[in-house]
Design a protein that fits this description.
This protein is an all-alpha fold. The chain has 6 helices and no strands. α2 runs parallel beside α6 and α4 packs antiparallel against α6. It is rod-shaped and about 75 Å long.
Length: about 160
């Protein structure tokens, strides 16, 4: 964990706490993950229940019935991605805050602009938010794969 903190410290504005930013990102990601999974599986189960004639789901309705159909995958999964947009906006705000932080109090923005490494300001303002975006995208892609596998394997073949 110390290696992660030292890596983060070299890529964020001086004076900000790596543990605070990491805790906020991890907490938001966990809440988002739970919301996404509950949202998808709750709605998927609801849609799946409409394909059966009984509460125990033993009698499958006829696929030829015009009033019985399974929604397409993206119609079911669409709402489970709302939290990812919240995290994206949170990370965009973090990038803005990192840049704005250099302009507060001691005005370290002027020092950052005079450094020999011209990209140091961008590195300290954008590295962590962009890394967070990549992690969030990886989580979204992984969840999409899991959701799609569940959709394909659990939905009765006649309704695919």
């Amino acid at each position: 964990m110390q290696k992660l903190y030292s890596w983060m410290e070299a890529r964020m504005p001086l004076g900000l706490s790596p543990s605070t930013e990491l805790s906020a990102f991890v907490a938001a990601s966990i809440v988002n993950l739970l919301y996404s999974m509950v949202s998808f599986f709750w709605y998927f189960d609801y849609c799946l229940g409409g394909l059966y004639a009984d509460a125990k789901r033993t009698i499958l309705l006829s696929p030829s019935d015009p009033y019985v159909s399974m929604l397409p995958f993206w119609a079911i999964a669409r709402d489970s991605y709302r939290g990812f947009f919240v995290i994206v906006f949170m990370l965009i705000w973090a990038a803005w805050y990192h840049y704005h932080y250099h302009s507060q109090k001691s005005k370290s923005i002027y020092l950052m602009k005079r450094l020999p490494a011209k990209n140091e300001l961008k590195k300290r303002c954008l590295t962590l938010p962009v890394t967070g975006l990549l992690i969030t995208a990886a989580i979204a892609i992984t969840l999409t794969a899991i959701y799609y596998i569940c959709y394909i394997t659990i939905t009765p073949e006649a309704f695919l």
